[in-house]
Amino acid sequence: MVILYVLLLASAVMGAVINTTTTAAPSVTKKATTAASSVTKEATTEGTDATTESNATANESADSIPTAMTGSLVAALTNAINKYLEVTKAVDHVTHCPYPYSIVLDECFYIGRQKMSWIDARTHCQGMKGDLASPNNIYALKAFLIDKLDSAAVFVGATDQEKEGSWSWLDGRNIVENDFSEGEPNNHKGIENCAGLDTEKVRVLNDRDCSDHIQFVCEFQLGG
Ligand SMILES: [Ca+2]
Ligand SMILES: [Ca+2]
């Protein structure tokens, strides 16, 4: 989005320059022609002294042209910058995620490139002033993740470590039962206590072994 507005700004400025140049050009030509005509006429009728005086008049006209152009250009630039600032201010409240987080609807996520256990991933996220993701919009997060991962699954911020079978997000919300894939959570081998998000499934959540080493998603809480 920022790139788009920078391009729009550049386009607006270029448009202003072209307009200013286009409108100023006939004026320049007209003034130069008038001045030259005046020089010729007065030199013919009034002699050398008159020619000198008219040359001074022509030079004065030529000096005033750049000043007029500069004024128009400054006005156009000021107008374009003010419009850019208005647009930036309007969109800032929905796009403000601190680097390196990305906005997904109204949440800020970061995809961990390294593969690590759930607890190490959580430590990594907390070191980035966030935590493992507790997405409100889990299918928007899925859409964001598709094609960005080395494999299909990532760790997210949900666990039943405190009480087997009692799942909640790290932000305290209960997990929607239907967000688990069919047959999940199954606590396979009795050791699956950490939530993974599988982008290849229709319903995306699965309980996994917390010691698996996979990619993960951090979230930065806006306004938190
Ligand atoms: Ca479990
Ligand atoms: Ca499972």
Automatic annotation (TrEMBL):
Top-level taxon of the source organism: Eukaryota
Low complexity bias locations: 29-53
Keywords recorded for this protein, A-Z: Signal
InterPro entries per the UniProt record, alphabetical: C-type_lectin-like, C-type_lectin_CS, Ca-Dep_Lectins_ImmuneDev
Keyword rRNA-binding tagged: no
The protein, known as: C-type lectin-like 39
Source organism of this protein record: Homarus americanus (American lobster)
Stretch forming the signal peptide: 1-15
Domain spans labelled C-type lectin: 104-219
Stretches the record annotates as Disordered: 29-62
This protein's record includes keyword Manganese: no
PANTHER family named in the record: C-TYPE LECTIN DOMAIN-CONTAINING PROTEIN (PTHR22801:SF63), LITHOSTATHINE (PTHR22801)
Pfam short name (any one): Lectin_C
